[in-house]
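User: Can you write out an input/output pair for a complex, sequences first and structure second?

Assistant: Here is one pair. Inputs:
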Amino acid sequence: MTAGKEISGPADPRFFTRAGPFGAEQLAEAAGAELVPAKAGDGVVRDYAGIAPLQVAGPADVSFLDNRRYAPLLEQTRAGLVIVAPAFVDKVPAGCAALVTASPYLAWSRVARLFHPLAPARPGIHALACVDPSASVAPEAEIEPFAVIGPNAEIGPGCVVGSHAVIGQGVRLGRDCRIGNHVSISHALLGERVIILPGARIGQDGFGFAVGPAGFETIPQLGKVILENDVEIGANSTIDRGSVSDTVIGAGSRLDNLVQIGHNVQMGRCCIVVSQAGISGSTVLEDYVTVAAQAGLIGHIRIGTKARIGAQCGVMSDIEGGADVIGSPAMPFREFFRNVAVLRKLAKKASGTAQGETGKV
Amino acid sequence: MTAGKEISGPADPRFFTRAGPFGAEQLAEAAGAELVPAKAGDGVVRDYAGIAPLQVAGPADVSFLDNRRYAPLLEQTRAGLVIVAPAFVDKVPAGCAALVTASPYLAWSRVARLFHPLAPARPGIHALACVDPSASVAPEAEIEPFAVIGPNAEIGPGCVVGSHAVIGQGVRLGRDCRIGNHVSISHALLGERVIILPGARIGQDGFGFAVGPAGFETIPQLGKVILENDVEIGANSTIDRGSVSDTVIGAGSRLDNLVQIGHNVQMGRCCIVVSQAGISGSTVLEDYVTVAAQAGLIGHIRIGTKARIGAQCGVMSDIEGGADVIGSPAMPFREFFRNVAVLRKLAKKASGTAQGETGKV
Amino acid sequence: MTAGKEISGPADPRFFTRAGPFGAEQLAEAAGAELVPAKAGDGVVRDYAGIAPLQVAGPADVSFLDNRRYAPLLEQTRAGLVIVAPAFVDKVPAGCAALVTASPYLAWSRVARLFHPLAPARPGIHALACVDPSASVAPEAEIEPFAVIGPNAEIGPGCVVGSHAVIGQGVRLGRDCRIGNHVSISHALLGERVIILPGARIGQDGFGFAVGPAGFETIPQLGKVILENDVEIGANSTIDRGSVSDTVIGAGSRLDNLVQIGHNVQMGRCCIVVSQAGISGSTVLEDYVTVAAQAGLIGHIRIGTKARIGAQCGVMSDIEGGADVIGSPAMPFREFFRNVAVLRKLAKKASGTAQGETGKV
């Protein structure tokens, strides 16, 4: 059984570089956390060599607790230093120091990044890349083998364009973008620090056609895609360009894998769209909207600021800011689960009657 | 907020070519619409330089109204010419001419295409493409860098095979097909004018295996994929080849992004399958079937002509021609919404009782 | 209508090689089935040249019946030999021999493979591949054009790495793996006989970030992906690497197309995940779990051995081994269909009241 498999430490040196060691004070500063020395042991503030999950960490490792369901692991950890919320300080073993913060996950992210910094771009165009003479590639950018850079495209300093990525005619990448392997981008303008994971498709034709006398006729898709600063797009996701206006993903928004964004969608700042969700054409998401996995939104609706759309939710109309909806069709979270409970009760009551009606897939 | 962002005009010259200008008569003819001169202004039938949405169009632009929810924008537009249905002629501003037609969206598509024609193939095989000596590539076809054309493949005149596309052994493309970047096609025969957007996968092994004594054993997938004339396949969609018979997508059918088509599916003429929908193996769709976003069909069923499957619908059995179904399991549209309404009412009534039973994700 | 189209035989010679002919005894042995001679005809045990579906098979073809809904075709087949379960022996036409077995689908798979063996690797590195000098490629492996093999990667004997596949730094492939076109693999260790279909993404960053003062901050993803022996991954599926521990797909498990596997997921032996299903981060599947199409599992839950998750199911909590669930939220199969039946009955009763409340998408 997999569940019984031994858990190996993170940051396998075959795949990750490692910086450090770092002292506890240095880590506390990076984490923005308060350092609480170990209650027992030699009390010496040592240097730490790396990070590890609670189960496998040793005295030279930093670990963390974020999800309360893993709290029992904290009491048994052999880690030398743990990042925890104030509520868990009491559970830290005597020989272990703590970095205490209201945001342990954020602190963890910074400590982990300190030990394992992102490799910088290695400037230069690989001999096997295909760069149009009219393209403008910053000398500080890295272009990997078999990448294609089209006519008049602009690649900013610090960008990494992965193997087999295709950057179409006129596309502009701001500084420090990371374009994964096999990504295709056309008809698009990207801000700074945009990250696109492998296989994502940005800027292709939207799904638009009219019914003509001899079949469907394609509506020319004449808009573009705007990815603002710090946007991140998951693997194999698809973002169609606008038909008349543009498809816009607002600054800091994050899309997971296999997400579909239809033409003319406008998304505000810091939205989250989880895996396999889909947003149909011309729908507007205001800022800080969360769309959970496998949810679907029809076109031409508006989702208010900070609304949260639950997993598998089917949204057929506007949603107010701050609302919390789930179900298909979407309804308030509490109402959905109340319906589930009531139907279960009614069905149990009626079960004698319903006997034999159970379906078959 | 994104929603407050300025809307820029379409057809950014970095990405799109532009033809014209065109006179009103010429546009009326292309659109198959009746020209209604402006009620006020100089009455001169001018030339038009381009297209634009109602909000940003100026006197030299053509615009259109298709969705009644945007009607208020019509009354304020500064466009010189608008395409509208007869019902909206009265709302056209006095200084604006109109192209009146029962099919404004179709007319719009033709006018937009007139201004922004699809770039023709640029005949020739790029020096960085990899074409097997036994393949047959029409001299009028365009093969882009890093494309691979396998043994005995046939590429018809007017085809464009995008960067990094892989056309497998024996695959045949009829004339004027457009194969996007990063597409892979194997075990497939394509008709004419087939369009495949980036990253789609055509003809790979279907999901077939039998349970053997030591685990699953793969069933050899010995069929192929047939894409008939004028089929369009969206980005990152997947169409498995048949296991014994073929997987067939009928003439004129259009599939959106991230759609899954299982082995041996047979789809008739002019079907529509919207984003993230999935059709399981050996299911048959007759002609003009619509499958909305995120719907799922089990295998070995038949969907009748002109049936419409709603978004997120789960179809577990045959659907009659002309039916309109939604829900999971699928039921008639009216019944689904009646159920929703009745359950809501019952739950409200019972809400005192159900208190405290609300779930938690 | 497509459904009326003529069904062509399988194994088009443009796409498939063919071995044989084979005698009935030889086929019986390969199939692990009992040979029952034809009741009528010349009684001669002939050689068979190929395989075909019941409708199109001739006297030199082997065919099979697995799905009882196609039984009427058996009685009319002109096939010379059919593979059937004992229950159908009586329906085999008089002139046709039979291979009788309790596992006709498995027997079919072996007979089909005998006639159409998988082409072996053609050892060698294509001149247009890009292999890092520090990579270790077995001389018996085949590396196709435009493939990229990164630093210190290891490619085992018998592997085929397809066109445009990218094998990242340090990645290890055991013997006889088949990596499809356009696949990208990073931060991953693969066992033997692993098959990855075109466009799958293995080992990219998981979806992890913390809320910082200026927006989201990425959590470094420091785990890897482990694909054990005989794993198969469908086209355009995405498997994120672990954040701290690893993402593990257990031996013999099969994932269909467009499947999403989040970071740290641990999957046991011989699990099945059907198309467009998604499994969120840190969820554990024990052995022999089946997840049907478009189902979604939240993170941090455990699914017991041999549990079966129905199509479009939404799983929000642990599922016991052997359970059979469907619906969103997930419930026992019988309960789901009872609920459906009861709600339908209640809604019909209330239909006078609900009139006019029917929704509109």
